[in-house]
Design brief:
The structure holds two protein chains of two kinds. By secondary structure, chain A is of the alpha+beta class. Chain A folds into three domains: 119 residues, Orthogonal Bundle (Butyryl-Coa Dehydrogenase, subunit A, domain 1), CATH 1.10.540.10; 105 residues, Beta Barrel (Butyryl-CoA Dehydrogenase, subunit A, domain 2), CATH 2.40.110.10; 149 residues, Butyryl-CoA Dehydrogenase, subunit A, domain 3 (Up-down Bundle), CATH 1.20.140. Chain A is 47% helix and 13% strand. In chain A, the strands form two sheets. In chain A, strands 2-3-7-6 form a four-stranded antiparallel beta sheet, with no helix packed on it. In chain A, strand 2 and strand 3 form a beta hairpin. In chain B, helix 3 crosses helix 5, helix 5 packs antiparallel against helix 6 and helix 8 packs antiparallel against helix 12. Among the domains of chain B are: 114 residues, Acyl-CoA dehydrogenase/oxidase, N-terminal domain (Butyryl-Coa Dehydrogenase, subunit A, domain 1, Orthogonal Bundle); 111 residues, Butyryl-CoA Dehydrogenase, subunit A, domain 3. The radius of gyration of chain B is 22 Å and the shape is globular. Chain B starts with a helix and ends in a 12-residue tail after the last helix. The longest helix of chain B is centred in the last third of the chain and has 35 residues. The chains are: A alpha+beta, B alpha+beta. At the A-B interface, helix 9, helix 10 and helix 13 of A face helix 8, helix 9 and helix 10 of B.
Chain lengths: 406, 425
């Protein structure tokens, strides 16, 4: 039965996340925006709390590890629709990012590297890396969206892989316990040879070179990491070490099907913060939004708000759809990219428009509107830019290979 | 005047105005005026004050779910086949003629379109609020053709309104006609001809007159206006908007043809009410504006569903076209500027669909849906039009000529955001 309401069983989880966002993230939002690169120590307590919730099962599998697709019997799949950990994850991330995107990204053990481990690790690896805070290292100075062009190499030498290369834009690269690194086993074999490796901090040959100064999400550290003859145990290669040319990039890219809805959720949460505050400010200014009357007959501000809210609602529902499909083991890479594309662009549109509507109150640091407009921009870039999402959607719809539609 | 005469001469000289085409000619010309159709009289039945039949709200399980129920899926399959097999092939001609083919209308009755929202107890097929089913059906029909979809859905809008807000007397008097063999054409008339029209503030006036009411005003873009036997008309009564049942034979009611940019197959027209006297039975639903507001919102959802179906038709049509069309030695779809337009059509179309489904499922569950319906309408009006615009653009000059249906979809999609009434979910 078609129903797009927030699932009943996740309401307590959402309520908790909202409390945390309101009482812990928001009050520290401006502080760590200004103290770039300073570790938000307030998060340690929170991370411990989230770990506790996960262990007790009370969090319904929310968080970075919630994207794992567990194997189940077909009977289970037929037993009707499921609302599982993917939905729980996007819903709690929306709430947390209503609080602060940068702080959510700084949350120990909730990194995208953890989502990558949850997505592609086997059961043994999952157990071994339990409790490890993992960041994700894909981008290189010479390769961003074309992640198949990774130059970092991994060469098998006895029981170890030897990794060489430079990674940039590693979120939580300095603070995390380990880094999930994308590297190629053999450049001549193309994308099929790209594998991900878990490299623990302190491994000789791995060095955090510097931290970036950024437009937004400044509380989240963004590192450059260099690998020089860095040796990692071969068991740290996530998934299968076989280079399956037929399967190609699919293994590594599967992570994105799971993480893109999470980033879409971040954009949705951040944009909601802007919308709510702007609505409040507009109401104080005497602007009332009437849902029944045509937008054209209301003030321009009310019409703009209706437009933003409708786009927001679409981004929100596309995100839930992608997560719901993952929960129900339906292939969702098309829907994940649609959600990321819509949420990414709508996130920037809304937060920027809200600054404009709120005037100097929105532009100055008195309120967080200007910060949200800076934070949201990255969400249309990382985990695949707007343009990459459109490429993916277009290739799927048109039945094109990446060679045909470049 | 001279221009008009000249046109007539040209038509005569070319022998275009054959006797057989007269009716067609007149319905496709704006401003042709006639009295309402007179073919049956509805005799008053039912007991005053008795409880009307109402279906319960759909019971939600509290799970996020995008899967239609089995019944809904079955409906969509049947209606989808009807849309593909019968509607699409008839669409171009009906658009031209500004009228749906009789045979198509008969088939639409056979698949039960008018009784979708009528309670089982009253001879319909509804056992719970059918907004979601109605939305899915309107979407599936509109994939065939929007104008024909509106023509087929118009009587159902009136039957659903009677089911939702009718008294026992109103249901007993009018619904048997809709559940019987000779289903009357009927239409929900809410739009009025003026810029910035606000459906919540109709200028059509109802004044109390003894036991009954007198109606004055003009309703615009009313589907199947010329052959409708029963209208539900929006009018202001004592400062609040309300709904009135008006039979086409009512004295003071006139119909004027109003062919428009699109949705032409629906046979659009104006309903002109001058001192039109109706009985105490006419007021449908409460006079405090609640039923009226719900009616406006449910009707808007119907138009959203129509936009989604037509948008899907555009997407399904442009994909093979841009893949086959060659330029500079390769398919045009190998270019990002073309491919990204297709991607955005799909993204915005799914956006429209989900936002509309959310509103419709809330309506079916008896939850407030004022906000959701407004957001769906905003999105569907704007992005739906964009899809129509891009559809023509993707075919280039070929999109501009009537050899392809995209120019019709372009015209049809402009209706979303303009239309009020006509359909109801």
């Amino acid at each position: 039965m078609i129903n797009l309401e927030t699932p009943k069983k996740f309401r307590p989880l959402i309520g908790q996340a909202h409390q945390v966002a309101m009482n812990l993230l928001r009050p520290n939002s401006r502080k760590y925006d200004q103290l770039e690169h300073e570790y938000p120590k307030e998060l340690d307590m929170l991370a411990a709390m989230i770990d506790g919730l996960s262990e007790s099962g009370a969090a319904s599998g929310a968080g970075a590890s919630g994207v794992r697709r567990s194997e189940g019997t077909p009977d289970e799949a037929d037993a009707g629709t499921k609302n599982g950990s993917n939905l729980a994850s996007v819903l709690s991330i929306m709430e947390m990012c209503w609080g602060d995107v940068g702080l959510l990204l700084s949350m120990p053990r909730q990194g995208l590297g953890n989502s990558a481990i949850a997505s592609v690790a086997d059961d043994e690896q999952l157990a071994r890396f339990d409790g490890v805070w993992a960041s994700m290292a894909i981008t290189e100075p010479g390769c961003g969206s074309d992640s198949a062009n990774v130059q970092t190499t991994a060469v098998l030498d006895g029981d170890h892989y030897v990794i060489n290369g430079e990674k940039i834009f590693v979120t939580s690269g300095e603070r995390s316990d380990a880094v999930v690194v994308w590297a190629t086993l053999d450049k001549s074999l193309g994308r099929a040879a790209i594998k991900s490796f878990v490299v623990p901090k302190g491994t000789p040959g791995m060095n955090v070179e510097r931290l970036e100064h950024k437009l937004g999400i400044r509380s989240s550290d963004t590192a450059t990491i260099r690998f020089e003859d860095c040796r990692v145990p071969k068991e740290n290669l996530l998934g299968s070490p076989e280079v399956d040319v037929k399967q190609g990039f699919a293994g590594a890219m599967a992570t994105f099907d799971n993480t893109r809805p999470l980033v879409a959720a971040m954009a949705v949460g951040c944009a909601r913060a802007s919308l709510e505050l702007t609505k409040e400010l507009l109401e104080k200014a005497g602007v009332v939004i009437d849902y029944d009357r045509p937008a054209h007959s209301q003030s321009a501000a009310a019409a703009a708000f209706l437009q933003m809210e409708s786009d927001w609602e679409a981004a929100y529902l596309l995100t839930l759809q992608a997560a719901w499909m993952a929960d129900n083991r339906k292939p969702n890479s098309l829907e994940a990219s649609m959600a990321k594309a819509k949420a990414g662009r709508v996130g920037s549109d809304i937060t920027l428009r809200c600054v404009e509507l709120a005037g100097s109150i929105g532009y100055s640091e008195h309120e967080l509107l200007e910060k949200w407009a800076r934070d949201s921009k990255i969400l249309d870039i990382f985990e695949g830019t707007q343009q990459i999402q459109q490429l993916i959607v277009a290739r799927r719809l048109l039945g094109k290979t990446s060679a045909e539609l470049k | 005047m001279l221009n008009r005469l000249a046109q007539t001469n040209v038509l005569d000289r070319l022998g275009l105005r054959k006797q057989t085409e007269r009716v067609v000619f007149e319905t496709t010309r704006a401003g042709f005026r006639t009295v309402g159709t007179v073919s049956r009289s509805f005799s008053r039945k039912g007991r005053p004050g008795a409880d009307p039949v109402r279906v319960p709200a759909a019971a939600a399980k509290g799970l996020f779910d995008l899967t239609p129920t089995e019944d809904e899926q079955m409906l969509v399959d049947v209606v989808g086949e009807f849309a593909t097999e019968m509607m699409r092939p008839a669409a171009a001609e009906a658009d031209d003629a500004c009228a749906p083919p009789e045979e198509l209308l008969r088939s639409s009755l056979e698949i039960g379109l008018p009784i979708l929202g009528v309670p089982e107890e009253l001879g319909g097929i509804s056992t719970e609020r059918s907004s979601m089913a109605g939305t899915l059906v309107a979407e599936a029909l509109s994939k065939g053709d929007m104008g024909l979809a509106v023509a087929c859905l118009a009587p159902g809008a009136v039957a659903t309104a009677l089911s939702l807000w009718g008294s026992d007397e109103q249901q007993s008097t009018y619904l048997p006609a809709f559940t019987g063999d000779e289903v009357p054409a009927a239409a929900l008339a809410l739009t009025e001809p003026r810029p910035l029209f606000d459906a919540m503030n109709p200028e059509t006036r109802a004044t109390r007159d003894g036991d009954g009411f007198v109606l004055d005003g003009v309703k615009s873009l009313v589907p199947r206006a010329a052959d409708a036997e029963l209208f539900v008309v929006g009018a202001e009564l004592d400062g609040k908007p309300a709904l009135f049942l008006v039979e086409s034979a009512t004295e003071g009611l006139e119909i004027e043809s109003e062919p428009s940019m699109g949705v032409r197959a629906a046979g659009l027209g104006r309903v002109i009410l001058k001192d039109a006297r109706v009985s105490d039975l006419a007021l449908l639903g409460d006079p405090d504006g609640t039923a009226y507001a719900e009616c406006v919102r449910l009707s808007r959802l119907g138009w959203c569903a129509l936009a989604i179906g037509t948008g899907q038709a555009v997407l399904d049509y442009v994909i093979p076209y841009v893949n086959e069309r060659q330029a500079f030695g390769e398919p045009v779809s190998n270019r990002q500027s073309v491919a990204f337009m297709v991607a955005n059509i799909a993204i915005e179309l799914q956006s429209m669909r989900l936002v509309t489904y959310k509103a419709a499922s809330r309506a079916a569950q008896g939850k407030p849906f004022e906000r959701e319906a407004a957001l769906a309408r905003k999105l569907c009006a704007e992005r739906g039009m964009q899809i129509g615009n891009d559809g023509v653009q993707l075919l280039g000059g070929h999109g501009f000529v009537k050899e392809h249906p995209v120019e019709r979809w372009y015209r049809d999609l402009r209706a979303i955001g303009v239309m009020e009434g006509g359909v109801l979910v």
